[in-house]
Design a protein that fits this description.
The complex is a heterodimer of chains A (109) and B (114). Chain A has 109 residues and is an all-beta fold. Chain A has strands spanning 3-5, 10-14, 19-21, 24-26, 32-38, 45-49, 60-61, 72-74, 83-90, 97-99, 103-108. In chain A, the strands form 3 sheets. In chain A, strands 2, 5, 6, 9, 10 and 11 form a 6-stranded mixed β-sheet that branches. In chain A, strands 3-8-7 form a 3-stranded antiparallel β-sheet, with no helix packed on it. In chain A, strands 1-4 form a two-stranded antiparallel ribbon. The termini of chain A are far apart. By secondary structure, chain B is mainly β. Chain B has no helices and 11 strands. The model of chain B has no long low-confidence stretch (mean pLDDT 93). Classes of the chains: A mainly beta (109), B mainly beta (114). The A-B interface holds A 4, 6, 32, 43-46, 49, 51, 86, 88, 90-102 and B 4, 31, 33, 35, 40-45, 48, 55-56, 58, 90, 92, 94, 96-108.
Amino acid sequence: AQRVTQPEKLLSVFKGAPVELKCNYSYSGSPELFWYVQYSRQRLQLLLRHISRESIKGFTADLNKGETSFHLKKPFAQEEDSAMYYCALSSYNTDKLIFGTGTRLQVFP
Amino acid sequence: ETGVTQSPTHLIKTRGQQVTLRCSSQSGHNTVSWYQQALGQGPQFIFQYYREEENGRGNFPPRFSGLQFPNYSSELNVNALELDDSALYLCASSLGGNQGDTQYFGPGTRLTVL
């Protein structure tokens, strides 16, 4: 079965500390992996996708097929990074998304 | 470029009633997906419409149905409402429904079933 697991409901760090939001997936084929973010009072929006191999707002995520993981990382957290983060995958030939339960990141000053 | 819009913003219904939620896709997008997000959960895929045809369905009963119109706007209909249908309903549009396409989300409709 296709599944996305985000083990942490809440992650709290201080400004300037490194951040790693964990995501593991279960899928037998070649998924496309995404991180979506929802800032307070804003709509859900794409942060980054694995195929682009880009860094957005200082965040990066590497797809590890051996560990079936797609953890989101940032070396120095900022207060404006506080938000709800969802890991998601789409399977072959569709853009239908399967989401994890989300991790709330709180960055304290 | 016009973003995805949804109406209404909030809705309160009672058990057994029927509800229709509406979504206007982003300009140029021909694919609309609907998601249900219960409190504390991630969005769950309900179904997708591509050029007015259903193009995939999640694990939701038939009382969840939809439509897509020639202008690619969409409706989600839920019959015989149950308490567990209380959730945020999200609509997302994309360019073609292909793996890797970016989905652009609307602000959602909050449905409360009493």
